[in-house]
Specification:
single chain, alpha/beta, Arc Repressor Mutant, subunit A, D-Maltodextrin-Binding Protein, domain 2, 3 domains, 11 helices, transcription regulation
């Protein structure tokens, strides 16, 4: 059981050092446990990759077989049913669209006051139907945030909020003032997310009516980079009102409503079913629900 617990932690964290930190062991102890498990099974589990390690095919197959059972056993023994945010030193891994990372930063101070020893890592990932299932099933993340509904027997998902999309541009834009019409929007040049991204932030997936083609001059995988490009040029961009409000003063952005109807972007929070009774996950899920509970207003605060 102990050897498999160490193996599970290394598979989740992706490195011996991070697994040791999570388990509150030394890296040497983790390496020794992996060696004992390898010798017991008679098959290699990890190979060197650059400065780190990578699981073998056998390790991936083993983890897929035992990962769920380890968490069920932990739940049955109460190992994950005790969680005190004031004293916990657990590390959680959140994953999802890159712009969520910026949203978390504004709440880190409040979380650290309630849970000073808690550590939260964020992994920016593609927003598609497959990545959440893969990451949660392989324990690469504790919670996945995205904009797409997931229908999978191992995944529990809840809708925790939505995002309104707006137009952002420089406050010194030479042609855009306090309003924006349809012709202006499609005449101007744009910065946008990379077309290869599968998420619902891709503009045309959210509109029920056909739209003209935009003149795209800059593309990035990061919505923040897209906004920065618009702030430093004459480009327009489409972003979420939450992120726009967060950066409008720092980037000197002008925020305007879209000149056409567009559906809001849903926010889904997903966990693996085996984590349903984990008190730590329940605490963090509650914090995230509260974070997305209120929809920021497009209108500036009075």
């Amino acid at each position: 059981m102990n050897l498999l617990t160490v193996f599970d932690a290394v598979m989740q964290q992706g490195s011996v050092a991070k697994a040791a930190e999570k388990l509150e062991l030394t890296p040497a102890s983790v390496s020794l446990a992996l060696s004992r498990l390898r010798d017991s099974l008679g098959k290699p589990l990890f190979v060197r990759k650059g400065r780190g390690i990578a699981p073998t095919l056998y390790a991936n197959q083993l983890h897929a077989s035992v990962g769920d059972e380890l968490h069920r056993i932990a739940n049955a023994l109460g190992m994950e049913n005790e969680f005190d945010p004031a004293s916990s030193k657990r590390q959680f891994v959140l994953a999802g669209q890159s712009y969520f990372d910026q949203i978390f930063l504004t709440h880190c101070a409040a979380w650290s006051r309630e849970a000073p020893g808690l550590r939260i890592a964020f992994r920016a990932e593609e927003d598609n139907f497959h990545k959440p299932i893969e990451m949660l099933s392989e324990r690469q993340a504790d919670i996945y945030l995205g904009s797409l509904p997931i229908n999978h027997p191992s995944i529990l998902q809840q809708r925790v909020g939505e995002e309104e999309l707006v137009v952002a541009c420089s406050r010194n834009h030479p042609r855009i003032g306090d309003s924006l019409n349809l012709d202006q929007f499609f005449t101007e040049n744009h910065a946008t997310l990379t077309e290869g991204r599968c998420g619902s932030l891709y503009l045309y997936q959210l509109c029920d009516a056909p739209l003209p083609t935009r003149h795209v001059r800059y593309r990035s995988d990061s919505l923040l980079h897209v906004m920065a490009a618009a702030a430093r040029s004459d480009l327009l961009c489409v972003t979420t009102v939450r992120l726009a409000r967060l950066w409008e003063d720092t980037l000197a952005l002008r925020i305007l409503p879209l000149p056409f109807s567009l559906r809001s972007v849903p926010i889904y929070l997903s966990i693996h079913r085996s984590q349903e009774n984990d008190k730590g996950n329940q605490w963090l899920t509650g914090q995230l629900r509260n974070l997305f509970l209120d929809m920021p207003s497009l209108m500036p605060a009075q």
